[in-house]
Amino acid sequence: xxxxxxxxxxxxxxxxTALKIDRLARFFNQSDAYTTEEEIRNxxxxxxxxxxxxxxxxxxxxxxxxxxxxxxxLNRLKKLPDIDHRALKETIASLQSAxxxxxxxxxxxFSKSLPNLIDSVKQRQSIPGGQFEFDLPGYQYWLSLxxxxxxxxxxxxLSGLTPITKTVSLLLDLIRxxxxxxxxxxxxxxxxxxxxxxxxxxxxxxxDEDNLYPEISGGRHRVFIRFMEYTDIYNKANQTKKxxxxxxxxxxx
Length: 253
What we know:
YacF-like, 8 strands, 46% helix
């Protein structure tokens, strides 16, 4: 049972923010593939979104707390006999390395201003068509200097945030791999999870042939899932009346 991609739903506010940061950071991991001006414009918009999520001083302390918490929990597993101690040691070492790197980042780097030109784009971000060359001639000139030049400067601006994105990715990988899936059935397209108080993230996978997607709501104490039948972009989706088998992972570490 597999779907083109797993549906993920955060059960805590930290995981919600982490998922957004992780998704946006992937755009920059693939930046070598961007070769046109329009792709650079898209990269700048993603950079502004990522910067807005990361550029707050309290995020550093939140991340340090989350990494430290996971490292302590994993350290307790050393006493268990039926465990891959080599993999456990490597994972703890990765967390400790991330923790050291996070602590070395100056707190004021999180509130550092964007370069003037990029900030001018941000100021017009919410205006429809606000980035035309007659509104932002300096931005247009910068874009004309070449794709590689633009990409290298974007990556330079974001380089100070790399420890954050790397740590978020590490934590999410740990959490995603912390649970094995259980096959569940949503009767008449509805499923309620009432025992998720320890959960941080739920992951749902459907069969490719189902032509369904889940609408998920709730929090750590109760999760409500409705499976919707997709038709097209013009018509509202309706809840399926079929019994739906799906794979469910409730992840935490």
